[in-house]
Input
Amino acid sequence: MLKVIPAIIPKDFDDLKDKIDLVIDFVDTVQVDISDGEFAKSITWPYTEGEDVPNHAFPYKDSLNIEIDLFVINPEEIVDAWVGAGAKAIVLHLETVEDPTVLIADLRIQDIKVGLSINPSTKNHVLYKWISEVDFVQFMGNDNVGYSGVELDPNVYDKIKELRKNFAELEIAVDIGVNFETAPKLVRVGANKLISGSTIFESKNIKEAIKKLENIK
Output
């Protein structure tokens, strides 16, 4: 089954809540990008407020699945705070953590889902050691992470196809560059989780945009 997840890059806590309000009637999961300005050039809440951990619990945390995509250096130092704020899943970037084995195990013990993410320039084989231990793999659609509206790197299609060939049952997500033009091809090569920001939030009809993505075959 194809999953469509709205991606939120929060400027501040109010911006996060406002964007969740726009989609909460149409989805059961959102993904929130958290960036410290080091791994990704962009800076998001709570770093925009001088904090490196959440200063509020997530809105709707009891009724909404919130995935936190940690675009941060040393995620192991702050991940517990995000779980405490209500995160149901954590995405770790293998470019920011050399060996996530212990962190993955700690999260799974807490019944938190874990995704491993790589940029297009990172070879697929770096994922293989941990695939059996995580819930999904996430391909970033471009090395220019942390921004909305960035174009998909065409190399991602082959990366998805190769991973799907070797892991038939794996949940494979794509974040960055997911739109009505790229989504059909992403699904055809093996993606089954589409994470989209601008295509959803810049649509004149958010409900219809989500439904259109969900119906892609």
In short: Strands lie at 3-8, 29-35, 65-71, 89-93, 113-118, 136-140, 171-175, 193-196.
